[in-house]
Design goal:
The structure is a single chain. It contains six helices and two strands. By secondary structure, it is mainly alpha-helical. The longest helix is centred in the first third of the chain and has 35 residues. It folds into two domains: about 50 residues; about 90 residues, no CATH class.
């Protein structure tokens, strides 16, 4: 928009009609993007209200009961990584026991206004869990 204004009023290379048409289109795009951003912010706020943040067991239980869409939305926001271990043989069926996920607990806990920042002990437990997953994968 700044470049458009510069070309219209400083350089005088764009006629008024062209400027107004471009400005109107840009304002429409800005409005659309602002509405999308509001939707994303509202969705994030909703997730932090419904997720049992700060409690691993409660969150795990929530995950087991969550719908596919709730899981997908949360995964985009809260997972650090997902790893699927190799089967060891060609054509093997999917085995959910080969899937490892690492939740970004620190981000999830900090995202909730009601949740305190994790203690050093909680964060150390998180790091140890991550190390166990990595060790399991190396040994698989």
């Amino acid at each position: 928009m700044a470049e458009l204004v510069r070309e219209r009023f400083v350089l005088r290379t764009i006629p008024a009609e062209t400027f107004e048409a471009a400005r109107a289109e840009l304002e429409t795009q800005i409005g659309t993007l602002e509405r999308r951003l509001t939707g994303v912010r509202n969705a994030k706020a909703e997730r932090t209200r419904t997720l049992p943040l700060g409690d691993y067991d409660a969150l795990r239980a929530w995950w087991d009961e969550a719908s596919q869409e709730e899981r997908r939305s949360t995964a985009r926001w809260a997972l650090m990584w997902v790893k699927v271990a190799p089967t060891g043989r060609k054509g093997a069926r999917f085995d959910p026991d080969r899937v490892r996920t690492m939740f970004n607990w620190r981000v999830m806990m900090l995202a909730a206004d009601k949740a305190p920042e994790p203690t050093e002990e909680q964060y150390e437990a998180y790091r140890q869990q991550q190390q166990r997953y990595e060790d399991e994968e190396r040994n698989a």
